[in-house]
Specification:
This protein is mainly β and 326 residues long. The protein has 2 domains: 1-93, Arc Repressor Mutant, subunit A (Orthogonal Bundle); 98-315, Sandwich (Jelly Rolls), CATH 2.60.120. The protein contains 5 helices and 17 strands. The strands form 3 sheets. Strands 6, 7, 8, 9, 10, 11, 12, 13, 14, 15, 16 and 17 form a 12-stranded antiparallel beta sheet that branches. Strand 3 (66-73) and strand 4 (76-83) form a beta hairpin.
């Protein structure tokens, strides 16, 4: 089985190196290996308190080194953890024999969608209040929706358009997308399944089944006015599309490869929702940086290669001329 390798270099390496600068976090990564463990199991194995482990897990998940998900347990929900990589390679300097790897990342506010088709139960809210009316799809057209920090719908989809973040002439080798999300039902139901599909540039890259619409304990970031009977938090999911296929939290989801997505042409359209023919049309709740458990919005990262000429030009602060269309 091929190793899952994370290659880091230059300024892009700093967030990873900061997250790894802890004996406890390194121990958690070593313990996880190819296993899935919950926070209590990690706590027992390493002899650390549960709050300490939770803090370290949060840090590792925020930079994309591990994946976390919530599953039903004997006492409410349990946070399960798995490692996304088998090895981390730090490149110092340039290898003249290999293409230079670069990456760029962009965070998209969840209210900045460019298209939607949503059906009740549905709604959205910013940090201070509900936007518009509950269960009224027209609320998704309100100008205030740009400030939304949480949105939900029982069926349908939302779509986001990311601007070109890889320079012209680049060859995109990998796409990573992360978001906190779960199913949607009136109130909440920890066992309400939903088949949530991700489309990139209109290509269906695969479907992940959310196990529930999570509640029963408050999300870490939720404002005080957010009622306990509402959805509280989601799973932080990481999708990766590279030359081998599409993966979610390191598990292969489909055979769609990064070369199938036409990413070199400019904008990247990201759609999340339910296929009408899905087995579980259980809706979507999408959490922004002021709700749920993870302080982030929708995050897209593109990794790419530049030919030697373009690399030299960029290093000197210049711009790369667009390649002619074939």
């Amino acid at each position: 089985m091929r190793k899952r390798t994370l290659r880091i270099a230059g300024p892009d390496a700093l967030p990873y190196l900061a997250a790894l600068a802890s004996e406890n976090r390194l121990a958690i990564l070593e313990l996880l290996g190819d296993k899935i463990l919950n926070v209590q199991q990690i706590s027992d194995e390493l002899g650390l308190s549960q709050p300490t482990v939770s803090g370290h897990v949060q840090r590792l998940a925020e930079v994309g080194l591990i994946a976390t998900s919530f599953r039903p347990g004997q006492r409410g929900t349990q946070k399960s953890c798995s490692s996304l990589f088998d090895e981390i390679v730090l490149q110092i300097g340039e290898d003249d024999e290999a293409p230079v790897l670069h990456s760029r990342e962009l965070s998209m506010p969840i209210g900045a969608y460019t298209g939607f088709d949503v059906h009740p139960t549905c709604g959205l809210a910013h940090a201070g209040s509900i936007i518009g009316l509950l269960d009224d799809a027209d609320s998704f057209t309100f100008p205030e929706r740009m400030n939304a920090k949480i949105l939900w719908f029982a069926r349908g989809h939302v779509e986001y358009t990311f601007p070109r973040i890889a320079p012209p002439g680049a060859r995109v080798t990998r796409l990573d997308l992360s978001a906190e999300l779960c199913s949607e039902v009136a109130g909440y139901d920890n066992a309400w399944a939903s088949d949530i599909t991700l489309w990139i540039n209109d290509t269906d890259v695969g479907t992940w089944t959310s196990p529930g619409d999570f509640g029963g304990e408050r999300g870490r970031l939720n404002p005080p006015w957010w009622q306990d009977r509402y959805s509280q938090f989601g799973n932080l999911k990481h999708w990766t599309v590279d030359g081998r296929g599409t993966f979610v939290d390191g598990v292969k989801l489909s055979g769609v490869r990064v070369s199938d997505l036409a990413l070199e042409r400019g904008q990247v359209r990201v759609r999340l929702g339910n296929r009408p023919d899905a087995q579980y049309v259980g809706g979507v709740t999408l959490f922004g940086d002021a709700f749920g458990n993870y302080q982030q919005d929708l995050v897209l990262r593109l990794s790419y290669e530049l030919p030697p000429r373009e690399t030299a030009v960029l290093a000197e602060g210049g711009e790369v001329a667009p390649s002619p269309d074939p």
